[in-house]
Amino acid sequence: MMERKFNVGDVVRTKKKIKNDGTFPGIPWGELIVGIGEEGVIVDVGLFLLTKTIYTVYFPRLEIFVGCLENELELVDEQKASTI
Fold first, then answer.
1. Would you give the DSSP letter of residue 6?
2. Angle CA 31–20–45, to nearest 5
3. Strands, E assignment, the chain
4. Which listed residue, 17, 43, 57, 77, has the most CB atoms within 10 A of its CB?
5. pLDDT for 23 beyond 60
6. CA-closest candidate to residue 56, choices 71, 68, 73
């Protein structure tokens, strides 16, 4: 079993720009979906092709759910997190 860096309920922040890789409906391929520093909460964890962990993150300010890779996210210190 693969080790997970994050779990459902964790508050995270984007470390990188998240652009549409063709899997986000309604937005052209390559267009920015989420900028750096946006906070969200992990709502689901899955696998892509059984090799990459994908975290479904809800970004409340943007009111969207986005699939993110581990290297695109960092854990937010719960005491410093804005109200999610």
1. -
2. 150
3. 11-14, 18-19, 32-34, 39-48, 52-59, 64-69, 73-75
4. 57
5. yes
6. 68
Q: Give the C-alpha separation, 43 to 68, whole Å.
A: 11
Q: Are the C-beta atoms of residues 74 and 11 closer than 8 Å to each other?
A: no
pLDDT score at 12: 96
* 81 vs 67: CA distance, rounded Å: 21
The tens digit of pLDDT for each residue in 33-77 reads 999 999 999 999 988 877 789 999 999 999 999 999 999 999 997
User: Are residues 40 and 84 in contact, defined by beta-carbon separation less than 8 angstroms?
Assistant: yes
